[in-house]
Amino acid sequence: MLNFHGWEMPIQYSGIIDEHINTRTNVSLFDVSHMGRFEVKGLDAYDCLQMLITNDLSKLIDNQALYSPMCDDNGGIIDDLIIYMIKREKFIVVVNASNREKDLEWIVKHSKSATVENISDKIALLALQGPLAQNLLQKAVVDTNLDRLKPFDLVITNIFGNDCMISRTGYTGEDGFELFFDSSKIDIWNKLIQIGSRFNIKPAGLGARDTLRLEAGLMLYGNDINENTTPLEVPLKWTIKFEKKEFIGKKALATQQVNRKLVGFEILEKRIPRHGNEVLIDGQEMGFVTSGSFSPTLKKSIGFCFVPIYVLPNQLIKISIGGKSYSAKVSSSTRFYKRK
Fold first, then answer.
1. Is the dihedral of CA 268, 339, 69, 1 positive or negative?
2. Whole-model pTM?
3. Which of 116, 126, 163, 168 could lock onto 179 through a cystine, CB 3.0 to 4.6 A?
4. Binning pLDDT at 50, 70 and 90, where does residue 53 land?
5. What span, in angstroms and rounded, lies between the C-alpha atoms of 305 and 264?
């Protein structure tokens, strides 16, 4: 167990590698109720959120979700979040646990007349992830055909007789679902584990969640991105919709001179990189590791690091670990794994 931003969280149950592999091959259940959840509603809800994010809410119809950074006036990333549009006047915003208070204050500051409520303690959030997730969940959600739920779609339904919002989202690189329901209905976890036995379900903790997202090229706030990082310096340029009339940070991003970038790399020797390790190019410190781990799927050590903009894929670099430098190769992408 670990104190994670005020939450007592499981690092592992049966073991990080075991849980990781099970998520890639069967199905795993994650309790992610530590994430912040806000309800934003009212006539100004759409305009409020559209101004706050770099991505474009106009792409959504009712019952769809969108990933986006939320930036400050300088283009620095306040947080990366997922916005669930139930309808134009009602949204659920999921933010990182470490940023809950900061994000709430920022959204309220720019809310106009929209109502912003922190519903984190009222609503539980579970993530059911893996290639067998749909088969399992369909047993629990008999009134909804999950085949119709496309990635980043959501549906208001019920599970085991309880009201539940289900979205086809997650942060593991696998197919899966996230379940929002009244936090007093804690038996839903036990029931999913029970009916999931035939699908080899296992509970999974923070350790596997971290290795899974790293393989899938998904960034972690506080490690890979923060307020001193802009979406142009990491693989999030695709989320910046400059065609939008206005959003906070637009001017700064439009004029930014980018001189560094976040890249993926693999260690060519038997060492595991960690956050903060120095990146050496021609013997000079030219960047640092933001995330690193052993990849249970690829059976090698991988990570993300910042390097100068001129560094190319397949270029050899050195990673300083424990006072010694080890050979590494820059990857063609930050995405090491893509499900079939």
1. negative
2. 0.96
3. 126
4. very high
5. 6
